[in-house]
Amino acid sequence: MKAPLLLRIGLALIAAVVFSQCASTPQSRIANNPQLFSQLSSKDRQMVASGVIREGMSRDAVFLAWGRPDSVTVGTNRGRETESWTYVGQRPVRTVTMSMGWGFGGFGYGGWGPYGYGGYPYWGGGPSVTYIPYTAGVVEFSHGRVTRWSATAR
């Protein structure tokens, strides 16, 4: 009985370490890119450490504050080249499902096994969660500086 419990605890610890490595925070990006962080003004360093951006910030500052964008688009606005970074989030949508039907099992449980033939009724369902993507934020740059940004309320 102790082995399965220890195994579960070990697997939970491994999963926690793996998932913690996947999470990107301003602090982890700053730690991984100290040279970029040191080049920012003191005001921008404070904002980046809090995950906040402002108009006039550089691309590097936005990267440190918000991370890598999910998509980058380029274009022009009034004859000036622009670049837009889009960040995508995911919202959970909870649903409850019910299903019924007629199935064909095997091995003597109403299926085609050695002890019988035919199908058996089944029913099932329950709560489930689906994650729906949404645009969490957009940052527009011109000449390498933020000219406009928007984000969903948190």
Structural class: alpha+beta
* Low-pLDDT stretches: 17-21
Strand order of the largest sheet: 1-2-3-4
Computed over alpha carbons, the radius of gyration is 26 Å
Helix content: 25-40%
Alpha plus pi helix count: 5
- Please outline the major beta sheet: 4 strands, antiparallel
Mean pLDDT: 82
What is the ordering of alpha helices and beta strands? HHHHHEEEE
- Gross morphology: elongated
Beta strand %: 35-45%
Describe, in plain words, how this protein is organized in 3D.
The chain has 154 residues and is of the alpha+beta class. Helices cover 32% and strands 40% of the residues. It is built from 5 helices and 4 strands. It has helices at 2-22, 26-32, 34-38, 42-49, 59-66, and strands spanning 71-77, 80-103, 120-142, 145-151. Strands 1-2-3-4 form a 4-stranded antiparallel beta sheet, with no helix packed on it. Strand 3 (120-142) and strand 4 form a beta hairpin. Helix 2 crosses helix 5 (59-66) and helix 4 (42-49) runs parallel beside helix 5 (59-66). Residues 17-21 have low confidence and may be disordered.
